[in-house]
């Protein structure tokens, strides 16, 4: 790995291209990695800490102390007296520019000091409740299940339908084959935002509004998938299919037993793409689904963002949870993904 | 055991006709070879027999039953492809049993047949390997095995040996011949290699440009080619062809005059030959001898261009003075000649083949 990264254009010496390449690679890595790292770190901060300015890198929380005679735990501050001496105090309440504090050693005596003399004491703290709370409060397990359901079912159907279309387009000769293929490809150029309204009306007409199947069925046939699989199937020799035909295999059996297994690499690529697409899908599920029990993760996430307040600590935590499955998929299948991107030019 | 009859078979792609009415009768249990240069339509014809390629016109029947509309499976044929077309994701055993599973055959029967075929072809040692892990010769045998287990009515071979090296090709050639003797199934074998056709087939069909040029036993084609095309195609190296003219005819034969070979009389030719006709004279390299021309023989002089000695035989390539085409002389044993040197060759006119220059037809009486 080190040897790989340290390679230079001319063995044994470094020139400007090496520095530019390293610089560019480092910059790219940082640009991609910093927001993710920031999100992960921030997801473990308390709500107050996320909103505090200037932001801190390490998740911290105010140090608290339980004092006799006070109901709640009090936050701990350092008071710098005008004479320069420092003293640890607990904050009871704060009104305007002055604060009521007490000395934890003598809890009965409270006294007032200007806030400018106070500096809060913070300690390292991981706020795991950012993760556990929404799980209870917002029914995230429900959203998670909905997302998994949509992703798995849509991916299976995508693989089946697209491979069937690709099989027909690559291995049968029929009138209008190329026109059909061009038509399928041309739908790639129409963005969802253009067909959003009519597509939604179709879903309503099919009684699939606010139904997970409404999200699934409208996404299973993708021009990308048909294109990717067709190109791959073109490389399967026709001889194999004819041999199977001579071997008395039905057309479906040829598809199922010969073509599909031989397409495994392309199917893997499409499966990964489909998982990523469906998992991250936001706009279409948002349009189709309206009741909270049908929400997918992405929509559930957005529901944490209200009109008047944004619960960043929950959003960030749940975003990290949402990222995990896709990341795991990517780590294990990155060879196929890079191959797929290289061979199909889509991502 | 199936007899195949083809009557006026035609194949066209749109307005382009590639097979122009072919009539072939294949006896039950016969081994016939379809030969011809590339693009002559032999593979297309084989695919029409198999049912993979629809028949545009004419009739194909197996044992007097019309099969034009039947699928390959219904025709019960088995085919060995040039590329072998083994299923790369299946083991050898699966490759062999796939066709039988499709017929919903009993498991025990499938195993029995696969094992029998594997033993017959000596591939039983690697039934669990994938095709990728096999050598070319082994793949070839698996492909044949896949055809055998089905116990088909007809075996079709599409240039099965063209991907093998020379030594393996000779070996597999004899194995297929042996297989045919054991199974006694009708076999149709497509090849562009006339040596394969000559050595394996009981009957050869020579095709050219979508038409049958001649059908016959291998030796018949060699000794009595029906036309110039067959004469040039069958035999290796090819027959020498020279232009000539009929000078006179009488009861004994025809006197010919050729700028390359001089004047000589070919005995025993009567039909269709008239004085003044242009003819093509065909002489096999083995019928030419080096040596001076004597009365009663024909002969010429050539400038040597190349000598190929195989040790036990030598082919001398040269040009007669006015000729565009090479003259090839077969010399038994080892022989050496300087390039550019002049050699005289001679032949017995009895061996000359005569063809009409107008249409290439053999002018009969063609002989050994």
Automatic annotation (TrEMBL), chain A:
PROSITE patterns, sorted: ABC_TM1
> What SUPFAM superfamilies does its record include?
MetI-like (SSF161098)
The UniProt entry lists membrane topology as:
Multi-pass membrane protein
The domain of life for this entry's organism is Bacteria
Keywords recorded for this protein, A-Z = Cell membrane, Membrane, Transmembrane, Transmembrane helix, Transport
Per the record's keyword annotation, is Ribonucleoprotein included, yes or no? Answer: no
User: Which coarse location class applies to the principal site listed for this UniProt protein?
Assistant: membrane
Kindly give the InterPro entries that the UniProt entry links to this protein. MetI-like, MetI-like_sf
Compartments in which it is found: Cell membrane
User: Pfam families, from UniProt?
Assistant: BPD_transp_1
Record domain ABC transmembrane type-1: where: 144-333
Where do transmembrane segments lie in this chain? 21-41, 143-169, 181-206, 212-233, 254-277, 312-333
Per the record, the similarity remark reads:
Belongs to the binding-protein-dependent transport system permease family.
According to UniProt, the name of this protein is: Alpha-1,4-digalacturonate transport system permease protein
The lineage, from the top, is: Bacteria, Pseudomonadati, Pseudomonadota, Alphaproteobacteria, Hyphomicrobiales
Automatic annotation (TrEMBL), chain B:
Show which residues constitute the signal peptide: none
Mind telling me which InterPro entries this protein's record contains? Answer: AAA+_ATPase, ABC_transporter-like_ATP-bd, ABC_transporter-like_CS, ABC_transpr_MalK-like, ABC_transpr_MalK/UgpC-like, Mo/tungstate-bd_C_term_dom, NA-bd_OB-fold, P-loop_NTPase
- Taxonomy, superkingdom: Bacteria
Q: How does it sit in the membrane?
A: Peripheral membrane protein
Alphabetical list of Pfam families matching this protein: ABC_tran (PF00005), TOBE_2 (PF08402)
Ranges of residues in domain ABC transporter: 4-234
CDD domains recorded:
ABC_MalK_N
Cellular location(s): Cell inner membrane
| GO MF term (any one) | hydrolase activity
Q: What is its EC number?
A: 3.6.3.-
Question: Which PANTHER family is this protein grouped with?
Answer: MALTODEXTRIN IMPORT ATP-BINDING PROTEIN MSMX (PTHR43875), MALTOSE_MALTODEXTRIN IMPORT ATP-BINDING PROTEIN MALK (PTHR43875:SF3)
Q: What is this protein called?
A: Multiple sugar transport system ATP-binding protein
The organism's taxonomy opens as: Bacteria, Pseudomonadati, Pseudomonadota, Alphaproteobacteria, Hyphomicrobiales
């Amino acid at each position: 790995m080190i040897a790989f990264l340290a390679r230079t254009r001319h063995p044994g010496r470094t020139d400007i291209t090496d520095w530019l390449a390293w610089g560019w690679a480092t910059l790219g890595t940082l640009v991609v990695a910093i927001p993710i790292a920031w999100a992960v770190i921030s997801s473990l901060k308390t709500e107050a800490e996320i909103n505090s300015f200037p932001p801190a890198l390490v998740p911290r929380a105010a140090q608290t102390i339980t004092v006799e005679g006070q109901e709640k735990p009090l936050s701990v501050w350092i008071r710098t007296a005008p004479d320069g001496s420092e003293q640890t105090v607990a904050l009871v309440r704060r009104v305007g520019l002055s604060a009521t504090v007490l000395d934890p050693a003598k809890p009965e005596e409270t006294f007032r000091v200007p806030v400018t003399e106070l500096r809060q004491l913070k300690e390292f703290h991981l706020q795991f409740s950012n993760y556990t709370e929404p799980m209870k409060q917002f029914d995230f397990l429900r959203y998670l299940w909905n997302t998994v359901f949509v992703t798995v079912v849509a991916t299976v159907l995508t693989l089946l339908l697209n491979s069937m279309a690709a099989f027909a387009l690559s291995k049968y000769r029929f009138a209008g084959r190329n026109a059909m293929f061009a038509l399928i490809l041309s739908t790639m150029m129409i963005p969802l935002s253009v067909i959003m309204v009519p597509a939604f009306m179709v879903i309503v007409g099919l009684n699939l509004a606010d139904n997970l199947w409404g999200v699934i069925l409208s996404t299973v046939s993708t021009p990308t998938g048909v294109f990717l699989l067709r190109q791959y199937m073109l490389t399967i020799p026709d001889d194999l299919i004819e041999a199977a035909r001579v071997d008395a295999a039905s057309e479906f059996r040829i598809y199922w037993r010969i073509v599909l297994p031989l397409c495994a690499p392309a199917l893997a690529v499409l499966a990964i793409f489909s998982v990523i697409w469906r998992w991250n899908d936001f706009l279409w599920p948002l349009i189709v689904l309206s009741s909270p029990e049908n929400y997918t993760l992405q929509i559930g996430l957005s529901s944490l963002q209200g009109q008047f307040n944004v619960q960043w600590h929950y959003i960030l935590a749940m975003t990290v949870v949402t990222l995990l499955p896709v990341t795991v998929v990517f780590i294990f299948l990155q060879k196929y993904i890079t191959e797929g991107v290289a061979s199909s030019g889509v991502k | 055991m199936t007899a195949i009859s083809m009557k006026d078979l035609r194949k066209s792609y749109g307005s382009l006709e590639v097979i122009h009415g072919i009539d072939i009768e294949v006896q039950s249990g016969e081994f016939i070879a379809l030969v011809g240069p590339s693009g002559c339509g032999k593979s297309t014809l084989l695919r029409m027999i198999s049912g993979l390629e629809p028949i545009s016109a004419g009739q194909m029947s197996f044992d007097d039953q019309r099969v034009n509309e039947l699928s390959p499976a219904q025709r019960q044929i088995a085919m060995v492809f040039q590329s072998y077309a083994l299923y790369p994701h299946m083991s050898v055993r699966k490759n062999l049993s796939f066709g039988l599973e499709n017929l919903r055959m009993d498991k025990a029967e499938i195993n029995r047949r696969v094992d029998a075929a594997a033993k017959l072809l000596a591939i039983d040692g690697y039934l669990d390997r994938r095709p990728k892990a096999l050598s070319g010769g082994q793949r070839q045998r698996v492909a044949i095995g896949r055809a055998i287990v089905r116990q088909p009515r007809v075996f079709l071979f599409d240039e099965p040996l063209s991907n093998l090296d020379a030594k393996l090709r000779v070996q597999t050639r004899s194995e297929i011949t042996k297989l045919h003797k054991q199974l006694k199934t009708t076999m149709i074998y497509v090849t562009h290699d006339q040596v394969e056709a000559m050595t394996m087939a009981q009957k050869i069909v020579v095709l050219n440009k979508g038409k049958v040029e001649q059908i016959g036993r291998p030796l018949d084609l060699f000794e009595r080619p029906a036309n110039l095309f067959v004469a040039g195609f069958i035999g290796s190296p090819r027959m020498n062809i020279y232009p000539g003219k009929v000078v006179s005819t009488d009861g004994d034969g025809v006197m010919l005059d050729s700028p390359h070979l001089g004047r000589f009389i070919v005995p025993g030719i009567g039909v269709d030959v008239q004085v003044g006709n242009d003819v093509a004279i065909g002489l096999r390299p083995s019928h030419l001898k080096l040596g001076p021309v004597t009365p009663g023989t024909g002969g010429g002089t050539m400038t040597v261009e190349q000598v190929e000695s195989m040790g036990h035989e030598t082919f001398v390539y040269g040009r007669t003075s006015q000729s565009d085409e090479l003259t090839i002389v077969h010399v038994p044993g080892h022989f050496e000649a300087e390039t550019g040197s002049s050699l005289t060759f001679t032949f017995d006119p009895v061996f000359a083949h005569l063809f009409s220059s107008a249409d290439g037809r053999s002018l009969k009486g063609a002989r050994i």
